[in-house]
């Protein structure tokens, strides 16, 4: 009626880019599933004023711009000043008769903003509560600086900087004071909120004045999404012991029963190890509590393993040597009743390698919960054509029970269905090609194979190996221009952490190669290379439905799970990938013959490490690899700056932890099989259908049901709550018990 177009309005809305990559996006999928499954669950985090930077490509280089996502306001959030809470920093400790007191602290207020999280068609609406930092009104004015009132007011920014900006590192730990402040800020505000809610409920029965916390773990479950909120463990202990006056052993028992920890990475550089000095300055009481936790933990291990000092050193929460550090993963394991990895292979590595000592001690504590994605966003919303086509064949119930996709196996040989699936894909490709032309002024051939590699730029994800394949294809076309070549549009996208030099060089290299390939008349439209600027959720929703080939090529044993892999599978792309993360389970579900699996397995990588990885040997043995590397090294792709990529080449030869050359040959051969199948459109589409039919396991609904039953001990409910305009009395007694926070 207003003459507005809904699609146009959707395009205008800013992404809430409050995470870096898979971990933040996983949390969003989990919130959708928890609401859809009727769980009383809350997602807590920080309301960053500036989210992940906007990426611009200038002259082939990544340039960062601030993501001022709140500039035009955010209609979905509601500030809740009535629930504002104080968070304390710095200060000192006083030993009193009543116990330790943390005094002379600096106070920052945490202002909550609530965003509704609606379940799918079930009238359930949960809450995501994000905290924003505010200075108290007497900030810097209660002490003797009354002299400089103006400066005191300006200094309020110091406190409010806590929620200013998201640290843009993915799979990398940066031990900065502001980052530790952020981690404690979200933890301290959230725990106060949870305890307030517990006390207000009938469960926090009060004996005279003191709350009885015995039922706390039955009523509250807290899932730690990686180690970033690990300070919640000493913080809950501080509340129980110092404030609620519980005896240590009882407090510790309740704490352990309340927390569970999800590990998201095995890369050593990503593990959080906070310097003791920093924690002592910022949170002196918490350091004291961590020391006490560690002492009791080590006493227990010394009792079980007498005279094994090396085991004590390995299992300690405190790492000695150089600067003393707190190993936050060890704190999480010791302080939780359940620890899980995010794919079968990852959970095995967690148990047998990374936390081997802990798993030997308490094997029952370690579990697997393979990641999933919400089919509401990653099929219905982003690919309505495919969603509708599936619904015509198997009904609409699959949206809430994705395992029903197996019914599609009946239609693998249905010629009409095969044609319709191919048609939907073609329409999505045309639409994406039009978007690319409108936004980036690049023309691409919609009948070419869309070969897509989108994720954060990182050495372990091996965008470099893809790049070497592009150069190899380019050289083959030039060597024999008349030979049949299956046309490809290679699309690579993703952000590099601003301080990650190698990742930024990889972006520059991809753009340099694209510059040469896209402008070579011999190549024509056989091969096009596009670097997709500013990859983010809203762009993923456009590119994934248009993809033919999904690149999931991390070195085996490095990608904990991956979730992009699942999104592509559900949207009718085929996967070229290593046996890593959830790729292993995707191959298990669809049959290995329906994915393009190549390269070293975890065992092969281990063996190669033992023998010693010699990059030079592959270079000497493989002429096409040698040619590609020589071109990059000699400045073929950077004629104005011939040694621009010397750092990249040097890394590949002398310190490539992720062994790009070792998988190059298998990767190129596997890509030849991909091209061969693509020529047979019908056979390709049949393989696509087999993949979609096998994607049901990878719904986050399945993942959340497993967390609910195995870790939180709550039952999902498929009861549809009556809408607000209907009387509620009928539903009163059907409310499920238990809360997962």
Descriptive overview:
This is Alpha-1,4 glucan phosphorylase. It catalyses: [(1->4)-alpha-D-glucosyl](n) + phosphate = [(1->4)-alpha-D-glucosyl](n-1) + alpha-D-glucose 1-phosphate. Residues 726-735 have a biased composition (Basic and acidic residues). Residues 716-741 are annotated as: Disordered. The modification N6-(pyridoxal phosphate)lysine is found at residue 567. By secondary structure, the protein is α/β, with parallel strands linked by helices. The protein has two domains: 13-368, 3-Layer(aba) Sandwich (Rossmann fold), CATH 3.40.50.2000; 429-676, Rossmann fold (3-Layer(aba) Sandwich). It is 45% helix and 15% strand. The chain contains 30 helices and 24 strands. It has a six-stranded parallel β-sheet, sandwiched between helices. Strands 1, 4, 5, 8 and 9 form a five-stranded mixed β-sheet that branches. It has a four-stranded parallel β-sheet with strand order 12-13-17-18. Helix 17 packs across helix 28. The longest helix is centred in the middle third of the chain and has 26 residues, at 415-440. It is globular, with a radius of gyration of 27 Å. The two termini are 42 Å apart. Residues 730-741 have low confidence and may be disordered.
